[in-house]
Design a protein that fits this description.
- With 231 residues, the chain is mainly α.
- It folds into 2 domains: 8-65, no CATH class; 73-226, no CATH class.
- The protein is 52% helix and 9% strand.
- A hairpin with a 2-residue loop joins β4 and β5 (145-146).
- α1 runs parallel beside α2, α7 (148-163) runs parallel beside α9 (182-197) and α9 runs antiparallel to α10 (210-226).
- It is globular and about 60 Å long.
- The mean pLDDT is 96.
- The structure holds zinc ion.
Length: 231
């Protein structure tokens, strides 16, 4: 059943998306909303006791992105699983996190355009997305060998702060991450800069390709890992 308290902006988006997708709603005892999507079908799970129109709008915007059919995290995951080094770092959790950050960055302007406040975009929407303690605690190397879990955490933290829509000051986070590994820092930030400029509405296999963007990232990660032992 469609939640009862949706406002006009959310209902208008829902109606528009229903031209392209089959969208249904199911109640679930959870303290957030989530969407399950498979090709043109989507199910939004929500708790009727706590649902607000903004959280449904957020899930609908994930569905809206499906119109553009790009692949970042999935492509990254599938293309690196046969690589001995990268498969240790780029697990499903990190690739899904990257997808989510990429999605959120492209959804956010539309969320604001719908008339909603940035404080309602996510749970703890305005809170810092990584603490200084987390960032300082990342130990990439042990006796000259790279720890794949730490590299995973490094990439995840950096993507989280780059993707943050809230105006948090990450100057110190950036400085620390840069000191820990300048090359890795620049690989991730350059990928993010390209994603910021990437036009999801005009994907083109030659001039504006999501796959090429992700393949470049894989290539850079591969180069970074070449001379390193990663355990
Ligand atoms: Zn989301």
């Amino acid at each position: 059943m469609t939640p009862l308290n949706l406002d006009t902006a959310t209902l208008t988006l829902l109606e528009d998306l229903r031209n392209d997708f089959t969208i249904s709603f199911e109640t679930k005892n959870i303290d957030y909303c989530e969407v399950f999507q498979k090709s043109k079908t989507a199910i939004i799970y929500y708790n009727p006791k706590i649902v607000n129109t903004e959280s449904i709008a957020h899930e609908l915007l994930h569905i809206w992105l499906n119109r553009y059919n790009y692949s970042i995290g999935n492509h990254l995951f599938l293309c690196t699983q046969s690589d001995k080094k990268l498969s240790k770092i780029l697990n499903k959790f990190l690739c899904d996190h990257i997808t989510n950050c990429c999605d959120h960055f492209k959804m956010y302007p539309k969320f604001i355009e719908m008339g909603y406040s940035s404080s309602n975009f996510l749970t703890n929407s305005l809170a810092p997305k990584a603490s200084l303690k987390d960032v300082k605690g990342i130990k990439l190397k042990l006796l000259g060998l790279y720890n794949s879990n730490s590299v995973n955490l490094y990439i995840g933290c950096l993507i989280s702060i780059l993707a943050d829509h809230a105006e948090n000051d990450y100057t110190e986070h950036h400085a620390i991450l840069k000191t820990k590994d300048e090359e890795l820092y620049s690989i991730v930030t350059q990928f993010w800069t390209k994603w910021v400029g990437f036009d999801i509405e005009n994907i083109d296999p030659i001039f504006n390709s999501d796959l090429e963007l992700t393949d470049n990232l894989i290539e850079e990660f591969t180069k970074w890992g070449e001379s390193k032992t990663i355990f």
